[in-house]
Every structure is written in C-alpha cells, then in structure tokens.
Amino acid sequence: MKKYAFAALTIACCTAFSSIGYAASGFADINNIPWATTYINSVADKGLMVGDYNKAGKKVFRGKDNMTYTEAAQLIYTIVKSTGFSDDITETGIQKYTMEMNSEGVPAWGQKAVAFCREKGIITAYNLTKFTTNGKSNNITREDMAVFFGKALAVVYPVSSGTSLSFSDTASISAEAKPYVELLNVKGIVSGDNNNKFNPSANITRAEVAVLASKTYDLMKKGVPTNSESGYTQTTGVVASIAETNGTWLLRILTANGTEGFVLDNSTPVYINSTNNVGPKGIGLGDTVQVSHYNAEIAKVTITKDAVVDANIVNRQDFGKTITDKGEFISAGNYSIKILDKSNREVSYVIATDAKITLDGKTATMRQLSDMSRKKSTAYVVLEISSTTNEATKVEVTEKEASVKNEGKITALNRKKISILSGSKTYTYDFADDVTYKLNGNNVSSQADFMEKYDDLDDDNKYITAKLTFNKDDEVTKVDGTASNYKDEKKDYKGTISSFNGDTIKVSGSSKKFNIASNAKYDITVGATDIDDNDLFGGMDGDEALEALLDANAEVYVELTVKNSEVTRISGYVSRAEGTLTSMTVSNASRLRGSFWLDMKGIGDVEFKFDSDTRISIDGTTYDEENIESLKRSINKNEVEDVTVKFDADGVAESVKD
C-alpha cells in the first residue's frame, strides 16, 4: 500500500464533524487505509480528530476526504492547546482579527483557531485569502499544511535553510516553504511517497493528516517552549537590497507576496545556519533570509541560504543592479502590479514613481493597467526591478488577442452583416433583427443613415472604428462608432492646470487658454474634503481657493465644461500636494485604513485618507500593516517635513513619501 508524503490531519471542530467523537476502534472505514490505522486510532483517542455516522448508521472517519484551510487551523489550535505548547488567545486578540476573518469568509466556528494562528505568526494575512472562494471552503495543499505545522513547531525547534531536502520534486516546493518542510522531514513527521515525491501542490486527506497530527502531538509533548520568538511572524524571502546609514540598516526582501521591508540596527542578531551571529553586515544581495518579527520589532534574522560560496568572504552590498521578472498579468492598482510568474506563483511588485510603463509598445499609465484588471484582459508582463529599492522601474505589458473581437475598424457593411478589422484579423458578424447605432457619441436614426455616413467617409479615405454589442446568439445588437476624422473637443478640456489667474485657465496637453465665466462653478476634491470647506479655506470663493492651492505648489487635475467659449464649471481633484505631516490616525491596522493631516503652505492642515493601496515611505522605510502603528507614534510625536502626497480622483492617497 502506498504511503503518502504527508501525514493527513483533520480538525477537532469542523461543521461536518463537530459534535461526535469515537473511540478509534469504532470506525468502520479505516481498514481500507491500513498504513494510517494506528495514527487514526491515536488522534481519535486523544480527541484531536473526530468522525461521524454514515447513511447506514456506522461510525466512520472519512479518511479519504480532503482537509480545508479552516480545518487545518482548528487542528493546529487543538494540538497546541492540548499539549500546553503555547498560551491561549484572549477575546481581545480574537477581536483584532475579526474584521479580517469576516472579510475573507472564515466560518464562525473556526475563527478562534484562525485568530490564534494569526496571533502566533502561524498564518499570515496572505494565507487567509486562500481559505474560501465565493463562500466555499478551499482544500489546503500539502505545502501550506507543512508551513502551518512547521511554524507551530518553530516556537521551539530551530528552522534551517531547507537545503537538505532530497525529494525528487524538491524544486517544486517554494523557497518560503522549504525550511518548514525540512523541519518536519528531519523530525520524521513527513516523508516522500513511493517515488520519493513530496507533491507540494496536491491536496491532503484526513488519513494523511492523522499521521502528521499524531507525530506532531508527540513531538510537542516532549517539552515546553523555550524560543524567545514565540508569537513572532517568520517572513522568508530573497534579499533585494540592504543599506546602512548611521548604524540603521534597511533590509528589503522579495517574498512570494511581494516586497517586505525591515529596519535593523547593529545589535540585531543575524545568524548563519542558526548558530553564527554575523550581524546585519553579514547580509548580502541574493541571500535567502528568514526574519522573525512582531510588527516592526525584529527578534532575529536567519540567513538560510548564503549567496556567497566562500564562507570566509564578507558579503558586500551592491546598488544600481536590476532584476528581471516575467509572467502573466493578473491585476494592477494605482502603484502596484501582480503577475503569475514562471513558478506559478502570484507575485506583487511596487511600481516606482518614475517607472517607464508601456502597453503594446506605447507609453501607458497605471490607470490604464488598472482598467485592464476590470476588463479582465489577458496580457504578458516583463518587469525590471531595482535591487536598490526593489521597485519596478520598467513595466512592459503586451495585451493578448482575445478569441472573439468586438472592437475594430469597419471594413465591410451591408444590411445583414458587418466586418471589422481587429489587429491582423478580420471578424464578420450577422446583425440581429433590432439594431441600434451611434456615431461620434450621437444616436443614428436608422441602419440606412449609418450606412450612408459610412459610405461618405469611405469615399474620402476615412473610416469608422466600432464597438459591437452582441446577443446570446452572437448577433450584433448595437454598433457604437467613431469616425477617424472626429475630434472630441472635450479631450482638450481635461488635464493638470498649467496656468490660472481667476479669469483664464489652461490645462496640460492643450494649446487653448479659456476664459472663465463670472458665475463658474468650482467642484474640486481636496483630500478628504473639497474646495467649498469654509473651515479650510476661510470662506474664499472658488477661484480664490483654487489659486491658494496652486500657490501651495499643489497639482490639480481638472475637467472643464465649456459653453459659448467660456468655462462654466471646473471639476477635478488635487493630484499632488506638498507639506508637513502633522498627525495621523489608524482606523484599521490589519486592513490598513486611516488618515493623515498635511499642513499645506498658506492653507493649513488638510485631512486625507490612506488605505492598503497607498504606498507609504518615510525616512527610507516602507510602511504596511505590519509597522504602520510605529509610524503613527512617530508622526504624532514629531512632525515630518517635506512630504509629497499623490492622490487618486477620490482624494485617497496613492503614495506618501518624504
């Protein structure tokens, strides 16, 4: 009988097995998995795992069923508590993660266990995103199970580099998981299958988990925790940059979830192979490290893989080099992009403020890439990453052609069919019985009228680009066309204000300077408020308030409404502002929400919101949910001068940087 690479586990409390426990000998279905019988008996006798009744009324263990992420967390919690391996979580501790767990769909019965694992650093916020999909619990992989159990054991037992693994598929195990798989392998908890494979991406059954749970329980019972890092989170990654200034070291590592930043000092212990303390100066580019930390507090750093072959050579820090990564486009935000890399991992990168971004060979913006996310476009991404900042300095996106095209240049048109050229291919579609037409944003009364306009343009060597809408039979129901000679004048009325004096206004990208009507309306978002805020602008008129913003070196993006050659309305938002950060609040640290107050020259304190998409970098440190509280304490104690904030159209900060 095949013995699997993983001892399987199931939980002491799950919805399907929550109320009935049995003596192990009572299970009617374990004889068909003889290699796990002893371990199933063991976990059942200890009350770690339970079963239920089948339709025939017999007691069953269901050893061939897969285990979910929530069940895995519950089992770890049960084992740790029953062995006295760690203290319990408080109600306050649970509440700290309640919003996060609800957001990710963690069921109520498992929330205490999941909160316990979050508190102890066994489960990360990223891990939680795997727990459910559309309300349905997901089955855990063997690799993730090993990481969870390995982190639980790491409270006592040292974690090494993961280089001793000898499975035939070791290369398929992620770098982050290898140290924990190695720990379980060294302790005799996991082994390979008959082909010496670990099978990291496969699911794990209850029978396999029973083996893992029984052996882990016995190991935990051997002693009490002695590791001073109990409760700390372990973050593993490859060093992208390490820099020292006056005894303070800024370490940036590339993990499976993106960039992580840590601040060390000369006293921070840095170990090679868990024994030799070399200090921060021993960290070099390309090293694989594990950082034990609680928020911004660093307990230790372990170099699990030294990139320098000769151990007598002191690592040196290099700057200015770039790293290339490639993969399938997943999504993009205002300052970050996520790809599926060649190792089939989802990796996120921060985009540098001066990054060169192209889409299909043309200069593009992150907003365009974000739009691709909403349209679910398929594309290939090539990134150049700075080893100094670990930010993407070059982003090349090539959009893939979809299997069906609905936008392109009209090449043929009659009463029954329409043909469009999209890329290098021509697509022909039938018309439905009822079709509506638009040209240059205006409704066209009939098909005959639209065809006449098309023929007129075609005769003048011009053309119409159309977007088609289809019914369920793939027949065209709507044609929304734009003539090649059509110039939407409104496009000239959008941009960043380049000049303004109250009487006239000009925006970037336009050669026109417009007169402003005496009764023009001003609707401009300023952070969390707007230009009509009397407390902020002291009752100024709209033109005076806008002039004050520009005098404070703010950049304002606007859209102008023009009637009879005069601007009647100016709508927009402050896209960039400078000033001094005077105070800060954090409304939700785990989901990264809060407010800053920026003292702008001649205006005063302007409140603006930040969230998980906001890139915050102060004094060379990048802040996220792990260390945001330390920034709050720092700002509320000492103001931070010369800060630049960039905003989105809703007034939420995209980036905060000094």
Verbal overview:
The chain is an alpha+beta fold and 658 residues long. It has five domains: 24-220, no CATH class; 233-305, Nucleic acid-binding proteins (OB fold (Dihydrolipoamide Acetyltransferase, E2P)); 322-399, OB fold (Dihydrolipoamide Acetyltransferase, E2P), CATH 2.40.50; 407-483, no CATH class; 488-658, no CATH class. The protein has 13 helices and 35 strands. The strands form six sheets. Strands 7-6-5-10-11-8-9 form a seven-stranded mixed β-sheet, with no helix packed on it. Helix 2 packs across helix 4 (111-119), helix 2 (69-83) packs parallel to helix 6 and helix 6 packs across helix 7 (178-186). The longest helix is centred in the N-terminal third of the chain and has 15 residues, at 69-83. The protein is globular, with a radius of gyration of 30 Å. It starts with 36 loop residues before the first helix and ends with a strand.
Descriptive tags:
7-stranded mixed beta sheet; 5 domains; OB fold (Dihydrolipoamide Acetyltransferase, E2P); single chain; 13 helices; globular; 658 residues; disordered N terminus; 37% strand; 35 strands; alpha+beta; 5-stranded mixed beta barrel
Topology:
Blueprint: H1 37-45, E1 52-53, E2 59-60, H2 69-83, H3 91-103, H4 111-119, H5 125-128, E3 132-133, E4 136-137, H6 142-153, H7 178-186, H8 206-220, E5 233-245, E6 248-255, E7 258-265, E8 270-272, E9 276-277, E10 288-294, E11 297-305, E12 322-332, E13 336-341, E14 346-359, E15 362-363, H9 366-375, E16 379-386, E17 392-399, E18 407-413, E19 417-422, E20 425-439, E21 442-444, H10 447-459, E22 464-470, E23 476-483, E24 494-500, E25 504-507, E26 514-526, E27 529-530, H11 534-537, H12 542-551, E28 555-563, E29 566-588, E30 593-600, E31 604-610, E32 615-618, E33 621-623, H13 628-637, E34 640-647, E35 653-657
Parallel strand pairs: 8-11, 14-17, 20-23, 26-29, 32-35
Antiparallel strand pairs: 1-2, 3-4, 5-6, 5-10, 6-7, 8-9, 10-11, 12-13, 12-16, 13-14, 14-15, 16-17, 18-19, 18-22, 19-20, 20-21, 22-23, 24-25, 24-28, 25-26, 26-27, 28-29, 29-30, 29-34, 30-31, 32-33, 34-35
